[in-house]
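Hi team,

As requested, here is the filled-out complex form for the adenosine-5'-diphosphate run. I kept the field names the same as last time so the parser does not choke. Let me know if anything looks off before we queue the next batch.

— J.
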Amino acid sequence: MSTLEHWLQRYNAGRDTLPGAGVPWLDALREEAIMRFADEGWPSNRLENWRHTSLTLLEERSFAAAAAPLTAAAVVQGLRRDDDGAAGGHWLVFVDGRHAPALSDIGALPAGAQIRALADVLATRPEWVEGHFGTADDGASPAALNAALAADGAFVRLARGVTLEAPLHLVFIGGVREDASLVRNLVIAEANAEATIVEHYVGAEPAAAGSAASAGALSNAVTRIAAGHDARITHLKLQEEGRNTVHLAAIDAVQARGSVFASHSLSFGAQLARNDIATRFEGEGCEALLNGLFHVDGRRHVDHHTRIDHAQPRGTSREFYRGVLDGAGRGVFAGRILVAPGAVRTDAMQRADNLLLSAQAEADARPELEIYADDVKCAHGATVGQIDEDSLFYLRTRGLDETHARNLLTYAFAAEVLARIGLAPLKRRAQAAIRARLPGGELMEAL
Amino acid sequence: MLDICNLHASVDGKPILRGLDLHVGTGEVHAIMGPNGSGKSTLAQVLAGRDSFTVEDGSVSWDGVDLLAMPTEERARAGLFLAFQYPVEIPGVSNAYFLKAAVNAVRRHRGEPEYDAMDFLKRVKAEMKAVGMSEEFLYRSVNEGFSGGEKKRNEVLQMALLEPRLAILDETDSGLDIDALRTVADGVNRLRSPERSMIVITHYQRLLDYIVPDQVHVLSRGRIARSGGRELAQELEARGYGWIEDLQGAQAARGAAS
Ligand SMILES: Nc1ncnc2c1ncn2[C@@H]1O[C@H](COP(=O)(O)OP(=O)(O)O)[C@@H](O)[C@H]1O
Ligand SMILES: [Mg+2]
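And here is what came back:
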């Protein structure tokens, strides 16, 4: 069972063996975090930010490892094969939330770049992490559970001016032998550093569709990114977990002057996925792109809550989220934009568009703008709609049958989000992933 | 080959076509002119199978087949082509993919081998050159951000690629400058053949200087109010559409009186 007691017991049993146990600041932080989680429990829809996504279902739910577990090695092999640049890439693999050195391949790194398992760093050089780990108060209660229990993740540090030419792939394979994986990733990019970081979340599908309600895996991930001045960080998250997994994640960025942060959040799997994505401009002239695409079908549910904190002047943010909703799927987007007093010449733009493929699917898109400065440009728009009849007719008058035309328009709607992914191999991978989920997607390869 | 009898069509309960008759023989080019709002586009869309219009009465027979019973895509595959007055923008779908999918859908239907990428590119590039489109338009989303003239050229390109038996051009000339008009007209004239019929809908007789029709019809208030040869177009140009409507009004009044 996933009651609070379950997690408290797990904490009590494991705290002395967690990496970094005995490090005073870390012990204190974990204690505080588990207390907060015990106090708040799973978020319920009484909380404004969780109005559409209650997690109280988790209290009644048991988690279990997959009946037909994935072979982690095969998963990694598959991912690497798909990646055109695999030869030069950096691969750090985690199975059930623990670093799997045998499956990882960091490759050659430029001087000044470090890519390590967080567990190793906590055990050997906890002082590198202090100040970057986060606090017990960050985010919602699942983030506190993560702070208390996450035993591993990626630790990435790029010294001033260091560029990672090839993407860093972090692969998280869940539900293999354990029912839960909790990971925490820390990315520290100093001034002028540059990197692309890809997080793949994969997990097994339930053995039989009928057993769906009973057991699955919990995947709980927190990624913290600190971008130094003029640093350029691209983050791509591809969530393709099994339809029994509950995925609870936060991405938290802070940006120094002139830095550029791009987040692409592609949420295609899981029974329920919640992504809290935030960035805060702590210096002038920052840029952020928050780009997202989700797909739900069956009774699946995806929720993105984003927050862009224009705390300093002359920041630019662009936000584009799209959802494709089929079956009785549910999608939620809430995009908060804060413009602090004095953050003049802020330029913020947000769009959220949802395509409903069935009458039972439901989407909510809600902008929340809080503007306390003058001389700012803020625009937002949200739509929930069906396939455009004019487009459908046009395609049919050219001989495409209705199904092909619908599938084509659906894929095109989704693919526009993916067009913003800069690196071609990553874009192709993302396109293949969504094609595999959309009806008739295999016909769209040439698009 | 195309027989439209007593066609009545409405949208949201509002009658638009009210008893339209038209016969277009194989290999003939017919021009349909008429004031704005007279139902020209409605006729074109009904023939192409747009289901937001309800056919209330009448029949359309195409080489003996009941056209109205066919789904839109089957009409297209059987060789009916509509060049839209307002071509639709389809973001995210490349023109190349769209054109290839369309051509292959039609070729499959005809029992011809589908084009592979190489054959298709060769063919499409040749046709693009003929309609004055640069190859860059292959890799842009369908009609997205195209100028009015570029959209119309793209329609003519599709027509050339699909080699229809019956082509309906809905105001393909409007909004074109004289050069673009010539290119479009050349494209149409190249396709004229004894096997191919065309319905050219236009608001201005200017286009008919370049595409010489076998017959000219005037559509007014949802019916063909007048048919004639080329000279009818010139008369319309000189006198405007008002007199046709007056004529129709008088006829209607006589009809009511008797
Ligand atoms: N989808 C529609 N909904 C409501 N009215 C329509 C629709 N389409 C056409 N109409 C009306 O039908 C009439 C004929 O329109 P249309 O066929 O476009 O004329 P034309 O092409 O001759 O200018 C006009 O009064 C127009 O407003
Ligand atoms: Mg019209």
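Two things worth flagging: Chain A has nine helices and 21 strands. The radius of gyration of chain A is 21 Å.

Thanks,
J.
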